[in-house]
Every structure is written in C-alpha cells, then in structure tokens.
Amino acid sequence: MPPQNADRYAFAVLGGHPRDANWGKDVAQKAAELMEEAADGIYGHVFSGVYYGTRREEKKRRKAGKATPLHEKIPRRGPHRSKTAGSSMGGGQEAPTNFFHSVLNTIVLTGLLAQEPFQRIAGFTNTLFQTYAPDLHLYYHTTMERLHNWNKKLRRNFLPTVSVFAAATFNFGPQTVTFPHLDFANLAWGWCAITALGDFDPDLGGHIILWDLKLIIRFPPGCTLFIPSALVRHSNTSIQAHEKHFSFTQYTAAGIFRFVDNGFRIYRGGANSCKISHQSSRIFVRTRNVG
User: Fold this and answer.
1) pLDDT band at residue 289, thresholds of 50, 70 and 90?
2) Which has the higher per-residue pLDDT, 250 or 72?
3) 22-to-19, 28, 197 alpha-carbon distances in Å
4) Where in this protein does the record put region Disordered (predicted)?
5) CA 107, CA 101: separation in Å to the nearest integer?
6) What is the CATH number of domain 13-287?
7) Could you state, in order of their start, the residue ranges of all structural domains in the chain?
8) Whole-prediction pTM value?
C-alpha cells in the first residue's frame, strides 16, 4: 500500500520495478553503464563544458571581479554532476523553452534518452503514474498535448505514450548524494519520478529520506518511486567509497501548467511575489518547522 494522507489519498508511490527477472541486468545495470559512459563524454572530453564552459566562464568572472561565491558554486541539491533534458519554465521566462546544451552534450543526452533501458524506465514510470494517480496523470498528459500543439518546437524526451513529463535529469554522480531539499519549481501537488541506478549495496546506503514524514526508505538500483518533491523535503544517504550511485528523475515545472491554464500567457500579477534567492532557499529548507 502506498503512503497515504489523512484522507487516504496516495501522496507517494514506492513503485519498485517490474516483475521481470532480467530487469536488473537488461535495464538497471545497462542504464548505469550508459550513464557512466555518457559522463565521460560530457565531463571528460576536451571539448566538453568542463574546459569550454564552466572553467572559462569562471575565469572571465574572476577577471571582471565577479568571482562566483562559494555557496553558489555548490548546487542546491548536492555536489554531484547532472544534466537536464526537455523543456521547462521559470526564472523570468515569458514562455516554456527547451533546456540549452552544447552540441556535444545535446548529442549525448539525446542518445541516452533513445536507449532501450531509459525507454523502458520511462514506460514503466508512466504505467505506475497512470495506475496510482489516473486523474493527475491525465492532467499532465493533457497539459503537455496542449503545450506541444501550441509550440511544436519544444522537445519531447519521449513519445507521449511513453512519458507525460516535460523534463528529465540525469544525475551522473559518480556518487549522487543529495542535500535535504525541496524542488520549489515543480507542481506542488504533482509528482516527481525518481529511479535509482548504479552499483551499490542498498542495505548499506543510497536510502531516500523523506524528512517531513520521518521516513527512511530502502531504494535499490533499478527501482522507481514518486514523491511530491515540491512539498516533501528529501535527500538520500551516502554509499560506500568504492560504490557508484546515479539517478534518473522525471518531472514538470509548475510554470508550464500555469502558462497553459492561463491561455498560453504568463500571469504578471504575482511575478515578483515568489522570488527566493539561492541561499534563502537553503535556509528555508533547513529550518522550516513542520510540526
């Protein structure tokens, strides 16, 4: 039985994995291998963002006397490496847009999404979503169909029959350990799908912690769960030094739903009411009292 609220509505789903004896080898293990290989292409290649993006831009900022503060260098969710594909809306955008990447990174991420293991993970995730929250799934599906009919240049990570989410993040690790955080930009009552991947002992690490619910959940490689990531503080535990931990997450920004529901226009009335700085968001997550 999934975790339920006081009204007996499922607010999270511990989906596990399909009853397929080969899922671990053909999907989970292969997906982890593909992510490790992709990370080498993105972060290790001489033409990757490591040399021609992050470091170069940081040097420019230092020369201009605008070195990035230490608290901004470490991502809010954790120090691991990650890339996001698909579309989103937020940060002052007038309309939903595609995530921008270099040509090399675009090729690598597009190739990853097209691989059978991630197609199967997305399909299984979609089935879980439709089974446990059919009305919410329909809302996501309808919103995405309306959005892509309005702007056909927005990229889909998967076919609409495979996934209803607008974006997907590859957390490349190699030891993905997140800080307690909230995904403020996601739909408050929506779900974020998280799939654990890698080579680690799930009895000794890699657990997901839902802080507000006081739950620590065993989260083996190849398993998927859904949580309302904008409402429930979450993080995951460390793993052993010799192990590797990746994850694949799927979600849709709340701004997309607002934009579509408002007739493909932004709502300017509250444009300045929801701004929160990088540092303030960390303090809020760390100190909020949930009773």
Assistant:
1) low
2) 250
3) 9, 9, 15
4) 58-92
5) 9
6) 3.60.130
7) 13-287
8) 0.83
